[in-house]
Amino acid sequence: MALRARALYDFRSENPGEISLREHEVLSLCSEQDIEGWLEGVNSRGDRGLFPASYVQVIRAPAAEPPPPARYANVPVGGFEPLPPPAAFKPAAQQPPPEPFPPPPAGYPFPPYGGSYQPSQGSDDDWDDDWDDSSTVADEPGALGSSYPDYEAAGGGASGRYRLSTRSEPSLGPRGAGHPPGHPHPPGGGGAAKSSATVSRNLNRFSTFVKSGGEAFVLGEASGFVKDGDKLCVVLGPRGPEWQENPYPFQCSIEDPTKQTKFKGMKSYIAYKLVPSHTGQQVHRRYKHFDWLYGRLAEKFPVISVPHLPEKQATGRFEEDFISKRRKGLAWWMDHMCSHPVLAQCDAFQHFLTCPSTDEKAWKQGKRKAEKDEMVGANFFLTISVPTGPGASLDLQEVESQVDGFKAFTKKMDESALQLTHTANEFARKQVTGFKKEYQKVGHSFKCLSQAFELDQQAFSAGLNQAIAFTAEAYDAIGDLFADQPRQDLDPVMDLLALYQGHLANFPDIIHVQKGALTKVKESKRHVEEGKMELQKAEGIQERCNIISFATLAEINHFHKIRVRDFKSQMQHFLQQQILFFQKVTQKLEEALHKYDSV
User: Fold this and answer.
1) Is 286 annotated as a binding residue?
2) 284-318 per-position pLDDT tens digit
3) Residue 232: strand, helix, or coil
4) Which residue would you say has higher pLDDT here, 170 or 218?
5) Against a cut of 0.85, is the pTM above it?
6) Is a pLDDT exceeding 80 seen at residue 265?
């Protein structure tokens, strides 16, 4: 007897390895055993692949030939890594939409959030055993687990801590017999209650919206204790939502990069002196310390643009030019960190700035505390406090329009920044090589002319010879001025552009989180209109989407505010340096001109 099945609902494949089904279609099965809710078989058109087990009913009927061998028969159920499921199911028009596919099993190897970040490699400031021991977050008791705790009533915590939860009792609705938990369920259900419909999960479990915890938060699965110090407040300012300003603003200088050694000279590294203005106490940090901090912040704050660090370099790390360039890049990075109302007050950043360089024990304790922070992922969004009351609600259509406008803005700014970087780099190269060479070539030609005139021993021509020789020296000096000028004006502009290109690379993920939340709101509203979801449940989803929207708009406003400040200052500096440069050139030419007055 061949294994066969009849399709109960339409299913459209949208990923490689899947096949489409038509209602009432008969399929040949490769195996009756489903793998994480999927079966493998051949449809009536001869296509072979995977389809949801809950969309078919297994039947037994004679067949002319044995079923094809199952390619996945030897894969254990617990270890199966499913193909990326389709973006959306499209059941028959007369059927209600199916319930969502579950996420991959616990322990599924998700890549870290913000895939652009990679921890420091051995090619640049290796990790040392005395700084980073072998313990991990998973080894520590009380570390954040893979699932959120069940809903508990607020209160009961320590003073200054509040139990917040978005979790609600799941409405299971009618389940068909023989569907174990975690498997896909068929559409419909016959006599389902209004609350049986749920907002589906994203089938792409590797999207930023999912990995950041935004989806779990919007769907009401976040629960945790929020301390007063962890609250991130969004307020309504003249330009809309803004992060609440840091009540104790400060700056931090980065000075005196010095080469140091350890292990009796076997290990060399560059240490930078940091002097925060709010403590006045200097500390020394290596690049790997900056790199660790960046990794923690990028993971913790999915809706905040953490500035990128200057690029790593495998060779030439101790060359003077590279050290100077890196220090300037770190100075820009530090300025943006201190200027951000949220990042500046983060515990991990304050530990980085204030922990004494010589206290390894205190450093490791603060490091482990940051790595065990439970307010990450979906729980991070619990820490965001947004305006309430009349006039504080957001119009989602207006929010969507603002975010779309900012998305177009960042795309255009990124293209312009790339173009200006290329142009400035090419112009600087010409000044250092071409312009210097050409001006010095002119100077050399004047010098040759003066040497020729010196063959005339007449006394009345001596003054002219000296004036022409001085003109040659002036042009030679102007060539040197051109070669040195990019350090004064173009290089700072390119350093700023590099920092902002990092910000612009961050915003697609930030926007994706907000867009994902908005999609869930639209889906919940559709369920309410169709009578499949209670209004209260949909309002909860919209309220949590508002929190993400408030935070996104606050970050956008902060970006624009700091952008205007930075580019105003940098363009003023650029033009001032250009004026000084041409004044120096003019001065050299005027000095040469005055030499002819006495001829």
Assistant:
1) yes
2) 999 999 999 999 999 999 999 999 999 877 556 67
3) strand
4) 218
5) no
6) no
In the chain, helix, strand, coil percent, each to 5? 45, 15, 40
Is residue 6 within 8 A of residue 57, CB to CB? The reply is: yes
| Separation CA 187–CA 347 (nearest Å) | 47
d(CA 145, CA 490): 49
Q: Give the per-residue pLDDT at 16.
A: 73
Query: Region 510-518: what's the mean pLDDT?
Result: 93
Beta pairing class for 232-237 and 223-227: unpaired
* pLDDT winner (highest mean) among 29-43, 367-381, 458-472, 584-598: 584-598
One-letter amino acid for residue 213 of the chain:
G
Q: Higher pLDDT residue, 546 or 262?
A: 546
Given a contact cutoff of 8 angstroms between Cβ atoms, the answer to whether 71 and 40 are in contact is yes
Distance, CA of 505 to CA of 330 (rounded, Å): 18
Which tokens in the block code for residue 34?
């489903």
Q: Does residue 60 have a known ligand-binding role?
A: no
DSSP-derived pairing of the beta strands 384-385 and 267-276: unpaired
Cα 575 from Cα 570, distance rounded (Å): 9
Token readout for 100 is 């969502």
If you search the block for the tokens 């068909």, which residue do you land on? 176
Q: Which two tokens stand for residue 452?
A: 């020729």
Q: DSSP string spanning 455-517?
A: T---GGGHHHHHHHHHHHHHHHHHHHHHHHHHHHTHHHHHHHHHHHHHHHHHHHHHHHHHHHH
Q: What are phi and psi of 522, to 5 degrees?
A: -60, -40
Give me the domains of the chain, ranges plus CATH numbers.
Answer: 4-59 (2.30.30.40), 221-385 (3.30.1520.10), 396-595 (1.20.1270.60)
Residue 34 has pLDDT above 60, yes or no: yes
Q: CA 518 to CA 514: how far, in whole Å? A: 6
273 labelled as ligand-binding? no
Average pLDDT over residues 140-168: 42
Q: Euclidean distance between the first and final Cα of the chain, in Å? A: 116
Q: Which tokens go with 81? A: 């890594």
- Percent of the chain at pLDDT > 90 equals 47
Burial letters 74-86, b for 16+ CB under 10 A, else e: eeeeeeeebeebb
| Cα–Cα dist 429/22, whole Å | 64
What average pLDDT does the structure give for the chain? 79
- Within the chain, what is the greatest distance between any pair of CA atoms? 122
Contacts of 429 (CB under 8 A, 6+ apart): none
Long-range CB contacts (< 8 A, 24+ apart) of 70-73?
A: 70/30, 70/31, 70/40, 71/30, 71/40, 72/30, 72/31, 72/35, 72/40, 73/30, 73/31, 73/33
Contact 447, 472 (CB under 8 A): yes
